[in-house]
């Protein structure tokens, strides 16, 4: 494996571009080949079998392109496909899962010997929240914390249809999902879908100041660095890093939207 080879990053559509932004920020020497599967988005309302088949097809593409690692910048594809992909391919594969641990660990305060139970909403796709992988994650934390699962498929559609700047639409949608909670008693909201990371400012507007907004992007990129470092596969310092965006939807609209999300 050549350290100057690119890293493949994929998502069901445009959400994974939020992860690419983090890679560019934290690992600027790396070359990234991004593939968004917008022609088949959303994944979150499909069956695990469908998402697995789509993920394998994207992986084949990356193999042909000679990537040195793959980041599944999609919690949904990770829950449906990461184990099977790892079995099939030798390339290091970094997956994503809702950052529930980060949210629950906020209850471990050094000045207090007892864990302070956290009230956490996990916003993700229906498939992520239904899958076994998430059930296992919940099991680790739900005896000491109160965890609420909130599937938000419309938040994926709003990004894909280029309506992220429609303030009224976005706030109405957030109220639709979250008004049932007493948000003053919530400690954090986990953005368990990479599309949702683009809504951070809207969530800030919705939530009281005391509630944290947590996503897994930084942790994922930290993990990517550790994996590449352990393999001696980090790009040489000062190498010309960069991003190439590709999408299964070849329209000019998606290309323009992808670029605007990358530089947002
Ligand atoms: N961005 C994806 C995730 O992180 C999935 C969105 C979808 O296609 O439903 O789960």
TrEMBL record:
GO terms for biological process: cell wall organization; peptidoglycan biosynthetic process; regulation of cell shape. Pathway: Cell wall biogenesis; peptidoglycan biosynthesis. Gene3D superfamilies: 3.40.50.1860. It catalyses: L-glutamate = D-glutamate. It is an enzyme of class 5 (isomerase). One of its GO terms (molecular function) is glutamate racemase activity. Its EC number is 5.1.1.3. The active site is at residues 74, 193. Keywords: Cell shape, Cell wall biogenesis/degradation, Isomerase, Peptidoglycan synthesis. Coiled coil: none annotated. Substrate binds at residues 11-12, 43-44, 75-76, 194-195. Belongs to the aspartate/glutamate racemases family. Provides the (R)-glutamate required for cell wall biosynthesis. This is Glutamate racemase. The lineage of its organism: Bacteria, Bacillati, Actinomycetota, Actinomycetes, Bifidobacteriales. The gene is murI.
